[in-house]
Amino acid sequence: MLKPTPTPTRELVSLDGVWRFGIDTRLAEQPWIAALDSPLEAAVPASYNDLFTDPEIRDHVGWVYYQREVRVPRGWGGERILLRFDAATHAARVYVDDALVGEHVGGYTPFDIDITDAVEAGGAFRLTVAVSADLSKETIPPGKIEVGMTGKRVQTYFHDFYNYAGLARSVWLYSLPATRIDDVTVVTGFEGSTGIVDYRVEVVGDADVRVRVTDAAGAVVAEGSGLEGALQVPDVVLWKPGAAYLYELTVEAVQRDTVVDSYPVVVGVRTVEVRGHEFLINGEPFYFTGFGKHEDTAIRGKGHDNAYMVHDFQLLEWSGANSFRTSHYPYAEDVLDFADRHGIVVIDETAAVGLNMGVVGGLSGTPPFPTFSEQYAGAATQAAHAQHLRELIGRDKNHPSVVMWCIANEPASNEDGSREYFEPLVNLARELDPTRPLTYSLVMFATFKNDQIVDLFDVVSMNRYYGWYINAGDLATAELYLQGDIQGWVDRTGKPIMMTEYGADTMPGLHSVWDQVWTEEYQTDLLEMYHRVFDRFPQFVGEQVWNFSDFATTNGLHRVGGNKKGIFTRDRKPKSAAFALRRRWRGLDGRKPGTES
């Protein structure tokens, strides 16, 4: 799926701003057939939950409605006219004037709706978007809705971050020529000093295709033609972590020597490979340092914010981090564009979080019923998961910053049924993109003794909380558990191993001379203990702390004001551990600690 962008043949109008807003319980039965009868307005992009002081809106289960007037540029006659939603969490219905023109399910991937036959160039229309935050066993992530004692519908979900909802990313109106470029796939490599750019183009209509690659200075370095081919780039400059050199592939659809459509694709020439217990970028061992993150800020919720994005990347650089995981859903594509330009490595994760009834059982790990069953994660869930994979890989396949797909976070891979659930999804992911390694993040209940799916994947990604949920306050014992756990995976798999989550909740300003949980000193000491253990294993390829910053969760008794495992506070102020990580990570340059440069 091509991201809308202005070109000589395409135009783009932002629909971001303040829209009329209302919730279904306070609106007429068909609120889209007229102006919304509501005094409220909501910002786009932003989650709606924290915008208002009304708790009924914050906790609403059901549909909410956004509405605004849109004028089509008068010069768009004869063009295809589309709406683009970068995301609508978690389902959307779109109305032009009184008519339903399209629907989408899935809260973190974009969708387009062709409205050419419903609007006119130079004319205006009423755009209404209904958005539902409801989660069920037919959604990714899954959840369930029950009717409480008060008679209200109550949303339950099994992931530990707040279920923010709404139009959290940008909305666009854009034009396309009738004959057009519909998709572009790029795969890169190199032989010696020559870069290889393999491309495949899909076209709507009858047109020839020609392509050219330009360097960062705009000079043409390779040209070709046809729907697919391999372009050779002499004296190639590789895209590297921390040193992002980008080329541009311009694809043109041509009829009788006239360019009828043009689309640019940013290209970073690099390779990714797993070999033995090493993770290789451009044939060189790479060691991940960084974080699991969240799209989460005060008031905006999961609303994309360019100012926060820039500052977060500055903090990544300050800390010495070279990577992050898009936990636990695909982030806004603007974030990946930024990572492409700045050489930050990304593990791109699906929204498949909460596939684990063992979490409901608490530390016992005993599920109330099997996770992989029609009671919870059955055929409908698997189908939604597969569609999410198609949309995620279709969107992000050309980003050089994305080096690995993470299929799920903390699934019940220790339970029967997990292999039957995941094996078709792994096969699908490899079919959609055979070039990138696959992983999933292991829950603590899934051990090297009982996990049933690790052989399907390329990299072992561990989420472990020894010293916090287990052995809290006893780092000496926690170190022994961690050492044995990693050794077990080394002996079983022979694969690269990394830690995708480790950390401790920390209240900024709380201090102690003892190993007291929640203090800044304890967070620092816990991380340092983990690092001692990591450095004993040559098979270890990375460490991503949980979490980059504090974030909002449900109102659990153990979540005072949200999850406090951030190295930075929710407003991005450093805790003591941030300085300890900076001392460890800066200067590593993507190398395993203790190795020579």
Automatic annotation (TrEMBL):
Its EC number is 3.2.1.31. Residues 179-270 form the Glycoside hydrolase family 2 immunoglobulin-like beta-sandwich domain. Pfam families: Glyco_hydro_2 (PF00703), Glyco_hydro_2_C (PF02836), Glyco_hydro_2_N (PF02837). It is an enzyme of class 3 (hydrolase). PROSITE patterns: GLYCOSYL_HYDROL_F2_1 (PS00719). Keywords: Glycosidase, Hydrolase. Residues 14-177 form the Glycosyl hydrolases family 2 sugar binding domain. Gene3D superfamilies: Galactose-binding domain-like, Glycosidases, Immunoglobulins. GO terms for molecular function: beta-glucuronidase activity. Residues 272-587 form the Glycoside hydrolase family 2 catalytic domain. NCBIfam families: PRK10150.1. Belongs to the glycosyl hydrolase 2 family. This is Beta-glucuronidase.
